[in-house]
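Hi R.,

Here are the chain sequences for the assembly we discussed:
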Amino acid sequence: MARYIARRLLLAIPVLLGATFLIFAMVFALPGDPIRALGGDRPLAPAVQEQLREEYNLNDPLPVQYIKYVGGLVQGDFGRDFSGRPVSEIIQQRLPVTIKLALVALAFEAIFGLIAGILAGIRNKSFFDSLVLVSTTLIVSIPSFVLGFIAQYTFGLRLGLFPIAGLNDGLQSYLLPGFVLGALSLAYIARLTRTSLVENLRNDYVRTAKAKGLTPASVVGKHTLRNSLIPVVTYLGVDLGTLMSGAIITEGIFNLPGLGRAVFDAIASQEGAVVVGIVTLFVLVYILFNLLVDVLYAALDPRIRYE
Amino acid sequence: MSERTTSGLPHSSLSEPDPGLASGDPSVGSSPATVPELSGGGDLRQASLWSDAWRQMRRSKLFLLASGMLLVLAVMAAFPQLFTSIDPRARNACSLANSRKTPGTNGAWFGYDTFGCDYYSTVIYGARVSMIIGLVVVGGALLIGIFLGALAGYFGGWFDTVIARITDVIYGLPLILGAILLLNLLASDRFFGERNLATVSTALILLSWMTVMRLFRSSVISVKDTDYVSAARAMGATDSRIILRHILPNSLAPVLVYATIAVGATIAAEAALSFLGIGLQQPAISWGLQINSAQSYIRSAPHLLFFPSIFLSVTVLSFILLGDALRDALDPKLR
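And here is the predicted structure of the full complex:
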């Protein structure tokens, strides 16, 4: 197992380098001069501009810039934005918001997705089952930014149940955006749980359990669910990796000062170091959670062995 | 990275098509090479996967519903003047006096937008952009994905490894983030010079071919060692003939299911990008743009938000339903 993890981590290095270089190259190729734009209507003195360019390695060719950047990254230096603020400080400040948002979304998915999926799976082909199938299809069809506005309008403006935007109400502020962010995966988890439960309920060991007189709750809860939830648990892991990047739109709609907002603003102002720093973090999280899921898979399902 | 993890980029499909779908019994395959000639004997027919699927689909209510809705949307995209007599792009079509009037005013079913244009006709005209982008992007992704997937799966080796790593890199980038950067780049003077249909389509194609590639690659690997491929090779068929005539028809089913659902996902992605202000620009008519300009008036004129949202969601829903119906019909395991 340890060798497998080591090999996967080694394989992650070229992916990480490739992704950061791709982003780096794209930010670098963007039109316009970020340093000249810095001064706005009153341009900075040419000497100051030149000094800034030198300081941020903007005069070097792209590969040299990139190598210098990665060199800093290896030593834990994410670089600085154009006002001299370390990118790691920006990340430190913004990260908690995005993590809280992702956790709220994950809680929504896990709780409601699992309940809906288990009930639909037990009562296969019942009214509730069809209800879950239809409503999950509907949720998936609504793009997340549309869902965000509809939730904002209905629950925030009309019913006044939740804060509409911003972070002024503590954890309450995260409920609506968390639901919007997690809605898609909620639908996916409900379906996954249902399908997997229905399949497993057909197995011989379930018939045996029923035949020896176990209560239905014990048959489902102890015998079937444990097997059925393997794909669901792994999906949740992968999803946490992608939730963080899904926050770009949700944070925008609900005006939450998280990493998604930071990266969106940074692209607009061509803050290359900020963009690449945050993207590196996203990709790293994505890779680590994928690895975690594969390791978890082996732990949950004894039939899977990694060499 | 693991081939098993399912977090594809066009994230909004409930139903990742089962890659095992094509790897099943080759006797259900559709290639003419696998179906023995049957002559005489009453109503013996050539039951290929596709004709079976077609027969099953015609009976499916889901398929009829989805294709009916898509037919209406396609006509709406091609001939919007059949649905409305007002052309929102014409001069004098709008009057600022009507700005943001609610539905029902002056007989306007959907009310008026910020510029005082009839909202019903504006929303109807929005179908065209969505349909074009959905079909063009998925068509492009299919071409690139099938081409690279066929090469990677059939020949393997270093080419396969390189493609797999590139795919990993693009998968690792969040779709919206990659699209923002690509769009900024493509819209610069070096490439398109503006943000139009071509710019948005190109950016989305470049970010969405990977799933097709992976699906097709695994299909190719699962059929390339079957007897009929060996037979074709023994008879002296060239590699390109084997790929095009024998492997392609037998590997297409899962890709088609995915592609149908991906059209819906692409339409949603275009709307999201236009909504963020980095996709299409005014005066283009796009549901995403309409939702973007509606967001400032969510209190005073919520109808501006609802109508394009409903049209957008129904369009995405239709493609997802069609994909579901197609999968039900094409997956022999579900029969």
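The two ends of chain A are 7 Å apart (CA to CA). Chain A has two domains: 2-74, 95-271+279-300.

Let me know if anything looks off.

Best,
T.
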